[in-house]
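To the team - FE2/S2 (inorganic) cluster complex, inputs and output below.
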Amino acid sequence: MTPIHLTLNGRPQALQAAPTARLLDVLREDLGLVGTRFGCGAQQCGACHVLLDGRSVAACDTPLWACEGHAVVTVEGLPARLREAFSAEQAAQCGYCSSGMLIAAAALLRAQPQPTDADVRQALDGHLCRCGAHNRIVRAVLRAAASA
Ligand code: FES
Ligand code: FES
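Output:
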């Protein structure tokens, strides 16, 4: 099997997996990066998002071949600033949505370092939180932006 070459959380990797394998499965099952969650498996909930060249994408809908030559960042590879802001605002209850929210927030802050409340809500649109922690999550993203 021809390896797929990519950068994962800043480190070059040559992954021996089927090119058609879902990135989500490779991350969780082959590499043990279980911070990326499996929610709906159908690009509907946002739980599985990772950064692909800085864009927030659904790993449940991304085949491994699409990562060849690209940079993938999972929640484990994010800077501490965002996680600390989520912790400070108690922006999680069960935490199932958190990694996807953190990834979406990281993509937003990369593109727009000082977002408005409305910008944050738009960036997190499509990320479901069954615990209803949305307002605390929005505050956490704004806190992270303010601490930059
Ligand atoms: S598990 Fe990928 S969007 Fe829900
Ligand atoms: S904190 Fe439970 S789903 Fe968001």
